[in-house]
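Form 12-C: Joint structure prediction
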Amino acid sequence: MTSLAPTKPFQRTYRPPGPLVIDIEGVTKLYKMGEEIVHALRGVALQVHRNEYIAIMGPSGSGKSTLMNMLGCLDTPTNGHYQFSGKDVSSMTDDELADIRNREIGFVFQTFNLLPRSTSLANVELPLIYAGMGHDKRRAQAIHVLESVGLGDRMGHKPNELSGGQRQRVAIARALVNNPSIILADEPTGNLDSRTGEEIMQLFEDLYAQGNTIIVITHEENIARHARRIVRLRDGLIESDERQT
Amino acid sequence: MIRFFYEFSESFRIGWAQILANKLRSVLTALGVIIGIVAVTLMGTAIRGIDTGFQNSLAMLGDDVLYVQKWPWGPVDDWWNYSNRPNIKPQDAAPLNRIIQSTSNSSLEIAVPVVGSGRSVKLGDAKLNGVFIIGTEADYARISGAEYQEGRLFNDTEAGAGREVCVLGFDIAQALFPTRSPIGQMVTIGGHPFEVVGVFAKQGEFLGLFSFDNQTVVPLKAYQKYFSTRRGAELRVKMRDKNNLVGSRDELIGAMRRVRGQLPGERDNFTINEQQAFKAQLDPVKQGIAIAGLFITGLSLFVGAIGIMNITFVSVKERTKEIGTRKALGARRRSILMQFLIEAVSICLIGGAVGMVVSFGLFLGIQQAAPSFPVEFSPDLVLVSMVVSVVTGVVSGFAPAYGASRLDPVVALRYE
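Section 2 - Result
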């Protein structure tokens, strides 16, 4: 991996989509909210290939958070099929889902979700601990990834000693450290000012250019514009799914 | 397996970081455990101390000696039956010894008569009251484990002639002859002059009640010459094998009945006492301490466990979002369970360690303040305390940790 310092000029690259990673069909999700039953998803079909850069958009209540939880294997559908790299996720146990998340999915959260008392390095190492990697190897890998997001000099800092943009970079390094199949970012710029947000989006751009698969959930058009494909949700259904040039 | 190990060490790291981040809270939480551990170690120390003191005292009595006496040691309900018994007489020893010698493969070795009473011992103006004077034969040396500070016991010739010689207990010799050797000096026992031929080495007190160092031994014949033996004597009988207690006892009972000329069917009119009888009396005391100690320990550990359970619940609640994040990053249920269990156990272990230090301090204090009080600190107690701490931690931490492990990651991530 080469350095991804956010100094490069903005440029779009296009990569041909690779093999199928995510295959969702007829997925519904029901929630019980007290007496009421909420249909968060009413039958969604979505296919994601390797080397895609997708934005999932929709107003609040459209079901985009539910879809993200589903894609991230945090939740299982009420009905329908979900295959991740050919494996049926719908029928997995909690621990099997945990393993899939650990190996295949890198999460980036709006609120960063770093462990407050741990250093950047320890935060990035965490997924590797759950993967069962030995101390020296995981340390080396975490250092490498932190350097690649431009935080080689912030490894011993704790989250409260970092700026918002730096925190999100640590979180992105944590998402990347396991070489996941997809990176799932939930409003990654929601807690950042627009300039820092742009830097983070440039980082995603670079990651995409290197062959990563990225799914960004957002409600901001100018963030979604970075993606090569925009999926719009409304009332638990996919309203539109278009590729951008 | 290797993954488990990494998760384990990670859990430890997190647990300690968490405890250090909330020092005061952790210490307050551990207080119940601290008190519990102090209670359990002090109780163990006391019981062990009593045991040791008891064993030491029994060793003074001689663990291979049976006592033929009129009264049993310990309380009796029907004292009138005992008071009508004939006294044991010193001259019963001779026929008893003849029976022992004529028995082939006897489990008994020798019987020695002992009489005794409290008298004063004087040297010039110095006078000691209430010294226990023992009259016995030269064979006393064979049944007593006592060693000599100086000199010797009187010999057969002196005993046979009833010469006025005596062996002083350690404390008496110290009191009357603080600066010089008492050997060859004359002391006055009960108004009669005796020559000192030996001094016993220090033996200590029997259960803190009766001092072996406050007695003086004289030949039986000399004792009978000056002092009354109306209150009767006792026979001390040495066993050949101290492990053959039952056989020796039975043989001694048979032999004594022959000496006494008792008819078959008649009840024994004497009692065979041995040191084991003391044990039976001491056991309820030990049990009392143990029950009280266990109750206090149990109560404080229970309170401590509730405190730890509570704090773990709080900790889980506070870190719901962290749990969600960890689950999103691939933590399995058991990783989360282990993380919070280890935190609870660590608090308990800190409590246990502090409790141990406190009780060791108390133990040293007691030793300084009251050297004769039997206390003993043992490494087993450290182990017991550690095990108790860990078990308390696991028991109290399990419910909240289990709850944390079952949290839905979606819900946990959304938690603010």
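Section 3 - Comments
The radius of gyration of chain B is 33 Å. Chain B has a mean pLDDT of 86.
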